[in-house]
Amino acid sequence: MLTACFLLFFALVAGCLLSGKSVAWALLGGLLLFWVLGRRLGFSHRQLWDMAWAKCRKSLIVVRIIVLIGVITGVWRCSGTIASCIVWGVGLVTPGLFLLLSFLLCAAFSYVLGTSYGVSSTLGVILMALARSGGVDPTVAAGVILSGVYFGDRCSPASSAASLVAAVTDTDLYRNVRRMLRTALLPTLLTTLLYLALSLLHPLGSTDSTVLQALEGRFTLSPWTILPAVIMVLLPLLKVPIHWTITASAAAAAVLAVVLQGFSVREVLLAAWSGYHPADSALSAVLSGGGITSMAVSYVIVALTGLYSGILEGTGSLRPLSGKAEELAGRIGRFPSMIVVSLLCAAVLCNQAVTSMMGAQLLEGAYDDREELAMDIENSGILIAGLIPWSIACSIPLAMLGAGSGAVFYAFLLWLIPICYLITKKRFYPRAAKTAGDI
């Protein structure tokens, strides 16, 4: 019954992807399938709802952050923050190295901030505006940014994902971070070379002068306009929680929009809700978008995945898979098995954190070294979740960037870290090579 539900769920996902429909429909279908499964296992409707709501309630914390990110992407546009970065950035960025510099900047910021969402919604939005204004393919640019934001999400001491892995594996965060940086060295170098080649193929063209004139004509490009971005960088360094950081940045942007740019309070509130949509076609090409409503699909995805993952967890439907996962590890090796488990969990549960926890739970018995377990999760589940288009780890950053799922192909770092680690793992864990199937 469980296998049949999973097969039907994957068929629904495939149908949505092939037809161009939102994967939210497939997730809704998955909720119904797993609800029926729960009923067949003997649970009442009330019990199933309690299980589903217990998990969904926790996911509302993520929804709160997404709402705030929607606000900031709207008000940054009308505050002049993005306009200033475009005008000044065109003069500072080397056109032939735009994509490479975008990757390196996102990687550096994500390491400092430890959040893929925070960097995607701020620096990522700015870089995408630059890309569109300079004629760079937005799909390619979004893939480059996705690579960069996951560099720190995986190995920054400030990353919640890294802290979660350390907690579920009972290992030391800073020892894990050092190992993660070592295992990231080769794939980051290869990614840098690939983005250098892509930069030469997709240089930042000279921005249409009408766009720059429109930006300079509509916005007062004062140094004050950078204040919201500075707040997003500095407050996390002072250990200010991310939701307060985003709130402070959005508030500063709202004040600038009214005081400096001449927007009314009503216009700023509309931008926060439904985005900024200038009438000028030149401005619209690079600034239109943002707002709470732009993230609507993300809210639905978070809620639905929370509901049905609660049912799967509460009914114990995944427990029988643990023995099969450990049996698989005995045949093909621990890390290849972790890749398979992470891929399935990320595809079904659509959540990076849950994927990490499930990987630890299902394969824990196959490991005698908990640091190896932590590294295998970091080099698989944390990244693979970012490659599944309907996973919130991928869909939310892409929604912020205004890009489609095709960008995943260009997120080279997310592909190369698991591949390189699979090939070089024995250099980090020689004992692992003695296990059947491990490299």
Task: Describe how the helices and strands are arranged.
Elements: H1 2-19, H2 23-40, H3 45-79, H4 81-92, H5 98-113, H6 116-133, H7 138-155, H8 160-169, H9 173-201, H10 209-218, H11 227-237, H12 242-259, H13 265-274, H14 281-287, H15 296-314, H16 320-332, H17 334-349, H18 352-363, H19 370-378, H20 381-384, H21 392-401, H22 412-428
Helix pairs in contact: 1-2, 2-15, 3-6, 3-12, 3-13, 3-15, 4-6, 5-6, 5-7, 5-9, 6-7, 6-21, 7-9, 8-18, 8-19, 9-22, 11-12, 16-17, 17-18, 18-19
Q: How would you describe the overall organization of this protein?
A:
By secondary structure, this protein is mainly α. It is built from 22 helices and no strands. The two termini are 35 Å apart.
Which features would summarize this protein structure in a list?
439 residues; mainly alpha; globular; disordered C terminus
Q: Low-confidence stretches at least 5 residues in length (pLDDT < 50)?
A: 432-437
Largest sheet: none
Question: What general form does the structure show?
Answer: globular
Overall mean pLDDT: 83
Write down how many β-strands occur, each being a DSSP E stretch of 2 or more residues. 0
Strand and helix order: HHHHHHHHHHHHHHHHHHHHHH
Distance between the termini: 35 Å
Rg from C-alpha positions?
22 Å
